[in-house]
Amino acid sequence: MADTASPRLSLALARGRELHAQWGVKSQRPSVHRVVGDIAYLLERTGVQPKDLSAVGALVGPGSFTGIRVGLAAVKGLAQPRNLPIVTATTLEVAAGAIAAREPTAALVVNVSHRREVHGQGFLVEPGAFPEAFTEALAGDVAQVVDRLAAQSPSDRPRVITGDALTLLDDARLAVPIGDWARQPPPPWLAPAALPRLAARLAEGATISATRVAAFYARAALAT
């Protein structure tokens, strides 16, 4: 499992549904071009060879344009020679899934895109279930995106905001009040957090081939 879309590159290796090993870069600006070497290092340290892999997972975005392209190229390079199935997830749904909800909760995930622009999406998070999106994924100015997502969020349940763009909210001129929304930092590395979702999709047969893997970019229009 590889995540090169997020600010911190991370890898995870699973045996069945259990996390076997992980690798994460602490820097917010890792060199994603080293991802092939990082994958080789993780496999070597765990005694696993590429021929031992039965499936490959990847986060397809939204996130770093270059990071996604490089990461997906590495994933395709692992999967294509042996025709391995690939399972994918978005960075937004994985961040939503990391929220520990004790009751049905409305969650907004807001990640940095470029400068003061963000990617965002709203999810319903319930205990023991994977998050379900209740908005489309948006990209744009932080105030526009958060206002749109918050306005679409149900008001009859707890509400949480997570994502690596939390610090941008303090200076954003929001039209929709979010003072009563709890803030939860995202996981430092998303690859390990993605394993439950990807393992479930693999078990369901929700896989794709290397030739069909594509990046996910949140480019929905923000109509007034």
Shape: globular
Give the overall average pLDDT.
91
Question: What value does the Rg take, in angstroms?
Answer: 17 Å
**CATH class value of the largest domain:** Alpha Beta
Biggest sheet record: 6 strands, mixed
- Assembly state of the chains shown: single chain
Structural class: alpha/beta
Distinct helical segment count: 5
CATH topology of the largest domain: Nucleotidyltransferase, domain 5
CATH superfamily of the largest domain: ATPase, nucleotide binding domain
Distance linking N and C termini: 38 Å
User: Under the CATH scheme, which architecture of the largest domain would be assigned?
Assistant: 2-Layer Sandwich
The string of secondary-structure elements, in order, is EEEHEHEHEEEEHEEH
Task: Summarize the amount of helix as a percent range.
Answer: 25-40%
Share in β-strands:
15-25%
Instruction: Tell me the number of structural domains.
Output: 2
- Which regions are unreliable across 5 or more consecutive residues at pLDDT < 50? none
What is the count of β-strands?
11
